[in-house]
Amino acid sequence: MNTQSLMTALTVSILAAGPALPEQAIPQLPLGSQAAVPGAVTSAPPPLTLTQAIQLAIQNNLTDKLAKASTEQARGAAIQSAAGLLPHIMGTVSQSRVFKINLAAEGFPSNITLFPEVLGPYDVFDARISLVQNILDFSVIFKAQAGAAARHVAELQERLAREQVATAAALAYFEAQRTTRAVSAAQADLQLAQSLLKLTRDQHQAGVSTGVDVARSETSEAQENLRLIRAQVSAQNADIRLKRVVGLPLDQPVSLPDLPRTPVSELPAPKKAIGQATHDRAEMQVASEAYQASIYNYRSAEAGHLPTLVAMADYGFSGNTPDSTARTGSIGGRLDLPIFEGGEIHGRAVEAQGMRDEYESRYNDVRAQIEEDVRLALQNLTAEIQETQTADQAVTLAQTELKMARDRYGAGVGDNIQLLTAQDVLDRALDDQVDAVARYDTARVNLATALGQMETFH
């Protein structure tokens, strides 16, 4: 039996055992989005399921949107890094007017009588297509591989962002459910206190109890009313936080279905769960790809010492004007061999090596963190299963104790101290049950997060 059904059954049994209390005497405070306007007919909003909350959060959350933008940035950077492996083709068209040119400045002798010292004016026209292709450049090759790995990292980080958003949405959802159950428990406790107050007043009028008993019951009712108000405030806050995480308008009414407690049939073995988490967790894949990208960056920096081979070719038309041109062209290659660059290449290699060592350490740390997360999640969920079972048993025992105390007090045996004590025990048992169920749901979320399965969590 879930918490809501248990508290409803408890209230019905208590009211059936004692004098009936008018419904309008029970204060009803508005709860978050479920507040009702007096005299107005309102329809309940459609229930928001956990799956819907997770999907809405992924669609609307800023973290996921920023991750998608980072993926596009990494995609552009990967295209740029791969551009060095592709041919570069450039087309140019130029037309210029040379007014005067000093041939002596160009290296021609000026002491030849028939050779003029200054030429001009004349026109120069050139239309040309140029091709440059890297034939062999290991630095560019490794740089392109690093860019592809960085792009994959960004895609994995987008998936990680979805996992984190799903976790936040699930926790906010279960917190809203917890506060709703706490309100229901507080309402049941208030109805119980009012029923016991009515019984005490009847006993006092019959001369069985004293005025002190009535004062105790009135104090208990006031405390339960205060507890209900605080529970409703907490529920309102949780309702707003849930809508903020999910991305719904804060003034939009939201109703949460009272879901039955989801049992865990069998927990996976720690070794198997750790292996699954190491394979599925986005954090592990991000760390692995980032480490691989750092290796490529280090190799690219080291390859700066190696020779590079470039092929070049051009073809076009040259002349004085576009209608008086001749076809021209060239083809060739260039071999570059770094001899001394002032330590620039060595400095880049040392920097890249430090980055590689950093990402290797992060990779090992993430692996250890995943194992810790899985072991703690399994341990906590096992404990929470036992805690919920114990909390259910405590509620059952507290109900029995309250019934026995009420029967004794109704028979005129003693004062109502035992009755109010039993009521207080039941209050704490119901609160413990609500908290135990909430911690149980949180433990399930933590295990799904540790295994990397939050997007498919139900």
Characterization of the model:
The protein has 458 residues and is of the alpha+beta class. Helices cover 62% and strands 12% of the residues. The chain is built from nine helices and six strands; from the N terminus they run H-H-H-E-E-E-E-H-H-H-H-E-E-H-H. The strands form two sheets. It has a four-stranded antiparallel beta sheet with strand order 1-4-5-6, with no helix packed on it. Strands 2-3 form a two-stranded antiparallel sheet. Strand 5 and strand 6 (325-336) form a beta hairpin. The chain is elongated. Mean pLDDT is 83; it is low at 1-42.
| Largest sheet, spatial ordering of strands | 1-4-5-6
Strand fraction band?
A: 5-15%
Spatial extent as radius of gyration = 39 Å
Global outline: elongated
Concise account of the structure shown:
By secondary structure, this protein is α+β, with helices and mostly antiparallel strands. Helices cover 62% and strands 12% of the residues.
Helices and strands in order:
Elements lengths: L2 H15 L32 H11 L1 H21 L5 E11 L2 E2 L15 E2 L2 E15 L1 H68 L5 H36 L23 H11 L1 H21 L5 E12 L5 E12 L7 H67 L6 H35 L7
Antiparallel strand pairs: 1-4, 2-3, 4-5, 5-6
Helix pairs in contact: 1-4, 2-4, 3-4, 4-5, 4-7, 4-9, 6-8, 7-8, 8-9
